[in-house]
Amino acid sequence: MPKLEIASDEAWLDCLGVSPKAEDISGDEYVRELRIPVTDAEQVQITWDVTEDSVRVCHHRDGRIVFDLFREMATLLTVAKTGLGAELIIESGSNGWSGRARIQVSPAVSIEDTLLRS
């Protein structure tokens, strides 16, 4: 059974300059949200639910969603500095499969997503 491990609030602040907050829309205290400005017209929004082991990443540009990545059975959501930028790392899996998404959020957004059967 997956158990979602999340980076500390300090790690988010150190790498991205923003801290997670309770998500307003759901009203659920276990759902957290982080909004990362990329440019004046772009942002990456991350929400996660530790009770459901789920993570959603939405890339918004000019008020529209460019991509919407949702993972259930997530086991890891963390952030890391990469040279001049930063990236999110999401790992998920269960019996017979595993996945990893790396989403660079600065200096520009790029996505690498892998899902494998084992």
Compact description:
With 118 residues, the protein is mainly beta.
Quantity of strands, as a count: 10
Range of helix content: under 10%
Q: What string, H for helix and E for strand, traces the elements in order?
A: EHEEEEEEEEE
The structural class is: mainly beta
**What is the spatial order of strands in the main beta sheet?**
1-7-8-9-10
Low-confidence stretches: none
Largest sheet: 5 strands, mixed
The chain-level mean pLDDT equals 92
How far apart are the termini?
A: 16 Å
Question: Beta-strand level of the residues, as a percent range?
Answer: over 45%
**What does the radius of gyration come to?**
14 Å
- Choose one word for the global shape: globular
How many domains, as an integer?
Answer: 1
Q: If helices are DSSP runs of H or I spanning 4 or more residues, what is the number of helices?
A: 1
